[in-house]
Amino acid sequence: MIKKIFGTVAYPFVVFKKKKPLLSFIVSRVATMIALLFILGFAMFGLMELAPGDIVDQVISQQLMIEGKGKGGFNKSDDSFSSEQTMLMKKELGLDKPFYVQYFRWLERVVCHGDLGKSLISKAPVSFLISSRIWNSVLLNLISLVFITIFSFLLGVYFSSKAGTRTDIAATFFALFFHAFPGILLLILLQLFASVSGLFPVTAYPDFSFSQSPVKFVFSYSHHVFLPLLASFLGGVGGTMRMIRSTMLDQMGMPYIMALRSRGISEKRVYLNHAFKNTLNPYITGSANLLASLFSGSLILEIVFAYPGIGRLMYEAVMQQDVNLVLANSMFVSALVLIGMLISDILLAVVDPRIRYGAN
């Protein structure tokens, strides 16, 4: 009886999957993304709860320090905030409830009203703070991804044709070197170079807005982000280039390549028209992981070069234990990475006709 009921309920989904395999795959991936974001948010709230103290304790400590300085020194016995006042502040901020209750209240507010809440520190809407920073990070990481993609393919294809030569060995050495080099140390060294040489700014963002002078902003922005982009490029191009190189070498040993050569097709056409196309699949699969690593790495980049992005905002929110801002930040970045993975899966089906999601 139960099996029959289950079969009746699942029948429309089975029919939909057979008729629209790619669409059903997208729907299932979106459902999985929502579940992952729910679990991530719950875990973030739990981790913030485990951190010592909370935002109320920080506000009270800062207020006591200010009052202590005004009186000529900080006196621990001067309890300007009673326990009743502390509990009242926590109740106003909703911090008097267990973390899971706080999380479900936040989730209800987001889903039902589209309200991400307000920052517990600045009292500004979280949506405004994120929207003012997120596009800076997206722009920076997309530029990094484009440059890494272009040069990885150019260098990977070129060095695959020079396999075993001194040029190939030297390129492999430098690729491994920069891939293994600590990213934070590279950023610090580049900032020291900018400070000593004076050729580049030590910050990664102009001191005026785009609306004031669009053309001047573009040139100034390019000048400011050159060194951070260089660090991101050197850290990401090595691994991607080696992956494309190894894929090309693997393809060049395939029987169909030998058949193409035996038919008198030029080596250039064999490389670019046939072998090159088959390097797209592993790159598209790995591009989502590359984008995720760029976003995670941009946290250090934005702190070192004072870049006003989402990573720096996340760092400041964690240090201040601003729960609303931390949760919204992590949700946005995670959603972007998951969307990137979904797009890579769809592109795989587009570039490779052998892939049919859900088809039997």
The backbone outline, from C-alpha atoms, is globular
Tell me what portion of residues adopts beta-strand conformation. Answer: under 5%
Distance between the termini: 28 Å
The biggest beta sheet is recorded as: none
Provide a compact summary of the structure.
The protein is 77% helix and 0% strand.
Structural account:
This protein is an all-alpha fold. The chain has 14 helices and no strands. The chain has helices at 2-19, 21-50, 55-70, 83-93, 99-113, 126-160, 166-180, 183-197, 214-252, 255-262, 267-275, 280-304, 310-320, 323-351. Helix 2 packs antiparallel against helix 14 (323-351). The longest helix has 39 residues, at 214-252. The radius of gyration is 26 Å and the shape is globular.
Keywords:
single chain; 360 residues; mainly alpha
Topology:
Blueprint: H1 2-19, H2 21-50, H3 55-70, H4 83-93, H5 99-113, H6 126-160, H7 166-180, H8 183-197, H9 214-252, H10 255-262, H11 267-275, H12 280-304, H13 310-320, H14 323-351
